[in-house]
Structures are given as structure tokens and as C-alpha cells.
Amino acid sequence: MPTQAEKERLSLLQGTLDVLILRTLLFGPQHGQGIARSIQESSRDELLVEHGALYPALQRLETKCWIAAEWGTSDHNRRARFYRLTKAGRRELIKETSRWRRLAAAIGHVLGPEEV
Amino acid sequence: MFGRKRRPDDFAAEIRAHVALEAARLRREGLSEAAAEQAAHRAFGNRAAAEERFYESGRWLWWDAAAKDLAYALRTLRRNPVFTAAAALTLALGIGANTAIFSLIDTALLRPLPYPHAERIVALYARSARSGNEALSPATFLDYRRQDSSFEHLAAYRETAFNLTGPDRPERIDGATVTPAFFAVMGVPAQLGRTLTAAQDAPGGARSVVLGYALWQRRFGGDAEMLGRTVEIDGEPLIVVGVMPPYFRYPPACEAWRPARYVVPEQPLRPEVNQSDTRDAHYFSTIGRLKAATTLARAQAQGDTIAARLKRLYGDDEEMARAALFTLQDDLIGETRPALLLLLGAVALLLLIACANVANILLARGASRRKEIAIRGALGAGRARLVRQFLTEGLTLGALGGVLGMVVAYLARTPLHALLPANAYAGTALQLNARVLAFTALATVGSTVLFGLFPALQATGFDLNAVLKEAARGSGAGVGARRTRSVLVVAEVALAGVLLIGAGLLLRSFSRLLAVPEGFAADHVLSLQLSLSRARYPDDAGRARLVRQLLERIDAVPGVAYTAAISRLPLNPGNSTRGLDVKGRVAPPGGDLGPDYLVASPDYFRALGIRLVQGRAFTERDGVDSLPVVIVNQALARHFWPRQDAIGQWVTVGACGKENEWCQVVGVVDDVRQHGLDQTPRPAVYVPYARDPWPFMAFVVRTRTGPAATAPAIELAVHSVDKEQPVFNMRPMQDVVTQSLSPRRLRMMLLGTFAFLALCLAAVGIYGVTAYAVAQRTQEIGIRMALGAKRGDVLRVVVGEALRLAVAGVAAGAVLSFAVTRFLATMLYGIQRTDAATYAGVGALLVVTAVLSSLIPAWRAARADPLASLRVQ
To answer: Which residues does B561 contact at the CB level (< 8 Å), separation at least 6?
Structure first.
């Protein structure tokens, strides 16, 4: 049984992860491991993505036709399944990004100026 | 769930690729081979879980799991044969009853009549405030035919009995005299030859006849050469021009159709008179085919307009101001519709009770399966997965019940057919067709969800840890489950209460009806009917002579006490009324009431045991030449002479011999329930047979030895007078009485059966809950008894609990019944729908049932050895 705290973190991650994936794919097709690494790096290692948790999110996005997938070959000549952003996915990303920005700003206002 | 094309192994390959990529990268970052591999796996997290989640969201799992669930369900059901049998039989009863009643409704209300665009065939009546829906008069019919543009065709027909004579024995068949448009309205062509047409069968032309298929087969061996031949009907030769297909059965039971002599069918008593201009006789039926462009509502509106115009023109003669249109199907099913819908409601309640019961059993099992569920949960089964497995078990059970239910419905279809109006549905079988099967499937799935979801959620809606801990402790468990079960039992009792009260009301109505004075004594009386051939007995004198001869011959049969002839037998369909004027009385505006008009031979009152209240009966001397006399019933005497003596009063009766002849009232007889035991007797006037010899007569014979023994001799006596005279409907008068009640009896017995089943199910429900509660509280009871509680105390506690449930159920049931019985109101006789005795009786019955069904477990609990029950764990 997950503890209460774990549950909360997971549910927070779920919505977030979708946007992060879409954002990552904006720069070109990428496979799962690449996406995980990319998120980790671009968040300056603040976000620790459990790689396994990525896949349900990828599946979800694929079902919604926001991303499309295809088997291909990686830089280091390994077979991998590459995901790319669809038109619908691009639209969704724009929508979601502005939503997140507004949300972050709103929360920022509520929390007030950073205490030093 | 569906639509995914990706296979699980593809997903597994992706994950493998992911881990390999990660490991390769870590190696490039400087980790050793083994460390990189390990770190990559660690970073991925639970790989099996990811694969499983993928699997679960795919349709693969769905089918896979369904098959596994089914196998598991079958195994579970097989392992608990008693439970399975009990649940499946309960469901079979519920679903079977529903299927059976629905198949009736399908036949009577849903399945279209087998005629082209049958929905456009309508029956047309005149509606008046005084007499309800009434047949059109000939002149009105012609007015409608001229003025009403809603109809493509409008036809009149009169159902009548034909005496079919010829080389073989004489036969009496049901036939109809129709205007030529009749077949155009029905829209059915002949199977052989032609139907009647306006061009070829206009009044005054050669007389033809169309035969029904069954008659053609039975009487003429299906001989195609019959076309163009002559058959003799009512002594008149008619040319056979066509044979109808077997499914054509309108008017119901009709086997031959002949054209009308005039533009309207002839009046049966005066066929030689063209009645086309008459507005005060109503003796034929009207049907029409609506134009495709119109609707029933628009046709109704136009009909009303015409009716209002006719009323303005003709006033009192045209008393109706509205038209009444019914589709042919509604016309055929008539008053049976509410009864069918009532029964459908009843079986729906029964199914609800059955569901509650099965849910109850499942809940009890669910409680005892808590450990199993907890273990499966601990092994990784999600809640949704557990619920689904429960539902699969439920569906399997439901399917079993559904199939058995079909068997029940199949067995019930013959007896149930009797619920439909006999004539109209004689040839139609109740089918278990696609629509009925769909209904059964729906009922099955619906009830599965009802009884299955409940316990599934209940059983899986708890915290796994708590259960495992609790199970280890073994203390009284599942307060929630118990409460749910109690609520279910209360609902069962309440619903059973509704059915019992409904059945009780019908039963009490029926017994009231049996106690109603019929006005005659049916025992020892034989009745039979004759229709006298008009060709051979064309005039009144001849018919009067024939009847006198018949009466004499029958009287001479050994064992016969009295014999009499009567124009209309009590409790048989059909009615004749005549206008009646009283000397010295001014008719109220809108006309006087038209009393029932009956033509009787002298011994009629004695033969049928009708009490002569005052004055005298008819004698042989009351003939054409003597002083015209009539006898009236008490209802008529009360109506016209509430404070005077009826004897000696003078009246004219519409067709009492000569028109407007003054007749003297010489006798008053008891009121006879002429139109049904549940119908208040109407005023009636009796006229001596010799003055108005009808062409169709019923004979009543009071026997000393019993009607059955005398019947053959009586038939011989009739044939000794005229061997071409068919005798029909020969049966004891008691049968006539019984038969007149049979639709009511059938309804009552069906509702009674359903109510009884409901009671049994409720009893089982109470038993189950009590037994379960006792089993759960074995330890507690043991401790109480060890502490000095007496057996009586234990009994009282256990039975008391059942009693509480029953009382709550009875209260809810009474409230519910109060609301629901208004659908029953029209079927009651002599009691109110709030009849206190019925409510009290049903309440007592339910309470007693509850006590009885809780006694066994209570007794078992009280007898238990306290030490043994403490040692159980």
C-alpha cells in the first residue's frame, strides 16, 4: 500500500510528466530513455524521473494521438522506439504550457516573495 | 480498452531497449559493465509493474481475464452446488416469469397484426356520454363514408352465425356480412380466387362468398375446384369466389365472408328491410384504412367534426357528439391491456425480490470469502479486477438463471395464452422470438448488475490489512455487510407485501363476485343455441311454430323439468336494447333509457330459476292475437315506478310486435346479471316469444338428473324436429357462469402465484439473514449463555431481530401498496383498494412468515452447547 505522501507525489507527477514529455519532444523525435534523461538534465537534476513511470505516460499520450511512435535506430546504433510530437500534441503543449505558467505564477503570488 | 494494435512483447522489447540504452550511457560515463547494468535497472524501477500496467490497459488482458474469470466462476459454482442451485432457481423463477409475461405483451401489444400497414387499420365508434363507445348507425356510417376524407376505405361488417348446409351434416360457423370495401380496408388479397370487390359484389348482384382457409380445408378438403361452385348458407345458395390465406382471421374466429345485401349490412332480425336511412339502430361494426398521409390524431379530429355536425343536424337521434378511433390492435386487445401491464409490473417486482435474494446469498458468501479475496488482493489483484471477477461469477449465475428462465417461460406459454381475448388470439401462439429473447437477455444482465455489483463492492471495498488482522482475530465481522443484508431483506418483505396485497385485493374481489346473486339458478340447467334457417323458416309464424315444436319435444325427454327459449342467454356477449315509453310519462330531454330487450318463452323464468317477484309469468296464450303483455325486471320497475305498482302499467317497446302498440306489464322478475357478474343489472323488458320470434335462440333446459346425462337425448330431440338444424354451444349453465369469470380467475391466480413465490423468496431471505447472523454470533451467544442467559432469551433475541426486519418491511410495503394499487382499481369488485382487512391480513402473514423462518436458526442457536461454540476458534 502506498503511503498517503507517495500517493500525492504520484498524482502531482502524472499531469506534470505529460507536459514535460511533450516539451522534450518539441526538439525532435526521441526514445524513452532519451526522454527520461533529457527531463532529468533540463530540470538540472531536480526532478528525478523513475524511468518505469515514463511508459504509462507515453502510452497515454500515444492513445490520445498527441505523440506517435516508430521503431528506429539510436545514435549508438541500437534499436529503440522513437516518439515524435504530432500536430495535436503541439497544440496541446502550447495550451498546457500556458496553463502551467499561469498556475506557477498564481501559486507564486499566493506564496508571496521569496524569503531570504 | 479496444483498438490498440500494439502487442505486449513489443512493449517488452521497448523496455529492454530502454534499459540497454541507459546501461550503455552509464558505461560511457565510466561505470563498470556490471554496475552500469544494475544502475540502469534501478533507474527504471519496477519493470514487471510497468509491463503489467501496459498489459492491463490493453485489450489482451481483457479477453484473457474474462476467460480466466469464467473458468474460475464455473469452478466456484460447481464447488457449491446447493448455493448455485438455489440462486439459479431463484433467478430462473424471476426471469422466467418476466419472459413469459413479456411474450404475452409481445404477442398482444407489440407484434403487428399480419396485415399490410396494419397500423393504419382503425375501428370507428361513436362516443356518447350515456353509453360509451357504440357502433355507428347505418345512416351515420354512410355519412362518414361520404364526408370523412381521412380514410382510403371505410367498411361495415356484421359478425353473425352462418348455418352451412349441404351434402354433409349441417354446421354452424362464425361468419361476417361485409360491405365490399372490407377487404380493401384489410389489404389482404385472396390466396385463391378473389376477395369481394365493390365492382363485382355491389348490392343486388349475384351473391358470392369468400371462405376462410381453415373452413376450406376442413369442410371441402382444400379442393381448388371449389371456386365457382355453390354452397348453401342460411338456406341461400352462394358462389364461392375466393379462399383467404390461413393467417387472415378478421373478424376473429370468422370463417366465411359474404357481401351485404344493401349498402350497409342487413339487420339480422329484418333482413328484408333496407336500413340505410336508420339512425337509431346500431348493429354492425365499422373499420377503415387511414390514408398514408394522415395520422390517427388527425383522423380523430376530423371524425369529431363530423360527429358534431351530425348531432346539430339530427339532434336526439344522433346522440353522440364525438368519434372514437382505435387502431385495430388496440381494439382487439381492449380491456386486457391494463391486466397485462399489471402482470408485467408484478413480475418485475418478483424479479427484484429474486435479485435481492441472490444478492443476499452472495453477500453471505462474500463475507465468508473475505479471506480468499484478501489473499488475492495481497497477491496483486486490483480492486477493479476483483469486482470484475465477482461480476463474471454473477453473470455466469445470471446466464444459468436466464436459460432456466427460458425453459420456465416455454412451459408457461400455453396456459398463459388464456389471458388473451379468446377469439382474437385463437390462432396466435406465444413465441419466444428475437424480441422476447432480447428482453430476457436484458432482464438477465440487469438483474446480474443488481445482485452482483452490490456484494462485489461490499466484499472488495474494505482495507486488506484490516481484514487479514480481523480474520486472525476471528471476531464478529462485517457490520456494513450485515446492514446491507438487512436492508435487502426489508426491501424483499416490502415488495412481497405489495404483491400479496395486490393478490389479496383480487382474491377478495373474486370472492365478493362469487357471492353476488346471479338472479338465476344455474345448477341442473343445460343451455344450447340454435340459429333458425331463414330460408326454411322465413316468416314469424313459421319460426314460432318451430320453436313451440322444439320446446314440446325437449320437454318430452325423460329427466327434463322445464324447457324454455330466450333471445339472449345471461353472461353471453351481445345485447339488444329497445326504446321504451311509459303511458302518461313525458320522456326526459335526451331520450329515455333503452332497457335490455329479451324475447322469452313461457317457462323461461321457471327453467332458469328466476324469481317472479310480482304478477304472473308468460303463458301459451300470450300470443300474437291476445292482449300484448310484457314482464319487466325490478331495476326497470324501480326506475319508472319507484312509488307505484308496476303491474298493470302500459308501455310501448320499440319492436314489440307492432310498432307503438301499448303493452301491459303483467309481471316483475328478479334482476338477472345479464352482462356479467360484475355488472350491475340494467333495466330489462321481456316480451313473449310468439310476438317476436327471433331467428337465433338459446334454449335453457332444467333437468332433474343433471345436464350432462340429458344432453345427447336433447340433441336427438332437436334433430327429430329438423335434422338440418345445427345445435351449438351446448353446455351446462354452470359452465357459462364459470367461464364468464375465467379472465378474472386467471388474473387472480397468476398474481396470487407471483405473490406466493415472492413470499417464499422473502422467507428464504429472512432465514438466510438470521442464520448468517446467528453463525456470526456463535461466540457471543456462547458467552451470553455461559454467563447465564436462558435459551428463551437467545430465541427471543434472534427472532426479535427477524421480527424487526419484517415489521419494517410490512410498513414500507403498505406505503408502497397504497401508491401502487391504484393501477388495480379497475379490476376490483366490491372492495376499496385500501381495504383494511387485506392490508392487515397480509401484514400478519408476513410477520408470521418472518417468525417461522427465523425460528429454525434461532432454535439452533439456543440449543448450541455454549462450550462448543466458545471453542470454535
So the answer is: B524, B607, B702, B703, B704
B650-653 and B256-259: which strand pairing?
unpaired
pLDDT tens digits along B569-628:
999 877 777 778 888 777 665 455 678 889 999 999 999 999 999 999 999 888 878 888
Distance CA B689, CA B624 (A): 9
CB contact under 8 A, B465 and A1: yes
Which tens digits make up the pLDDT trace of B817-840?
Answer: 998 888 888 888 888 888 999 999
Residues of chain B contacting A, Cβ within 8 Å: 4, 11, 14-15, 17-22, 24-25, 43-47, 49-50, 53-54, 57, 464-465
Instruction: Please indicate whether, in this complex, the C-beta atoms of B17 and A31 are within 8 angstroms of each other.
Output: yes
Among B169, B168, B141, CA closest to B157: B141
d(CA B277, CA B258): 22
User: Are B54 and A78 inside 8 Å of each other by CB?
Assistant: no
Rounded to an integer, what distance in angstroms lies between the CA atom of residue B727 and that of residue B531? 8
Tell which of A35, A37, A55, A77 to mutate to test the B interface (max B CBs under 10 Å). A55
When mean pLDDT is compared across A51-65, B421-435, B701-715, the lowest value belongs to B421-435
Question: Pick from B184, B253, B262, B179: which is nearest to B214 by CA?
Answer: B253
Helix (H) or strand (E) run with residue B581 in it: strand B580-582
Asked if B394 and B451 touch (Cβ cutoff 8 Å), the reply is yes
From B20, B43, B464, residue closest to A51, measured CB to CB = B43
pLDDT tens digits for B473-503?
A: 444 445 666 777 788 889 999 999 999 999 9
CB B267 within 8 A of CB B284: no
Q: Indicate which of A33, A47, A63, A73 best probes the interface with B, i.e. most B CBs within 10 Å of its own CB.
A: A33
Contacts of B747 (CB under 8 A, 6+ apart): B339, B342, B343, B419, B506, B827
Which residues of B are less than 8 Å from A76 in CB distance? 21, 24
Q: Grade residue B773 by pLDDT with cuts at 50, 70 and 90.
A: confident
A78 and B20 Cβ atoms separated by less than 8 Å: yes
One of 3.30.70.20, 1.10.10.10, 3.30.450.40, 3.40.50.300 is the CATH number of A4-111, namely 1.10.10.10
Question: Cell numbers at residue B811, please?
Answer: 410498513
Q: Do B25 and A37 touch (CB under 8 A)?
A: yes
Q: Read off φ and ψ for residue A31, nearest 5 degrees.
A: -90, 170
CB–CB contact A55 B50 (8 Å): yes
- Beta strands at B596-600 and B684-688: parallel, antiparallel or unpaired: parallel
Residue A106 contacts B where some CB pair is shorter than 8 Å = no
Which among B770, B771, B839 has a CA at the least distance from the CA of B805?
B770
Q: What SS3 state is found at B171?
A: strand
Whether pLDDT at B381 is above 90? no
- Among the partner residues A53, A59, A78, nearest to B17 by beta-carbon distance: A78
Give the minimum alpha-carbon distance from B37 to chain A in angstroms, rounded to a whole number.
14
pTM of the model: 0.70
CB pairs under 8 A between A and B: 63
The cell for B113 is 397484426
What residues of chain B lie within 8 A of the CB of A81, using their CB?
14, 17
Contact A78 B24 (CB under 8 A): yes
Q: Where are the domains of chain A?
A: 4-111
Q: From the CB of residue B808, how many other CB atoms can be counted at a distance below 10 Å?
A: 17
How far does B364 lie from chain A, in Å, by closest CA? 27
Check if the beta carbon of residue B234 is closer than 8 Å to that of residue B268.
Answer: no
CB atoms within 10 A of CB B742: 12
Question: What ipTM was predicted for this assembly?
Answer: 0.80
| Helices B47-57, B59-79: inter-axial angle, 10-degree rounding | 90
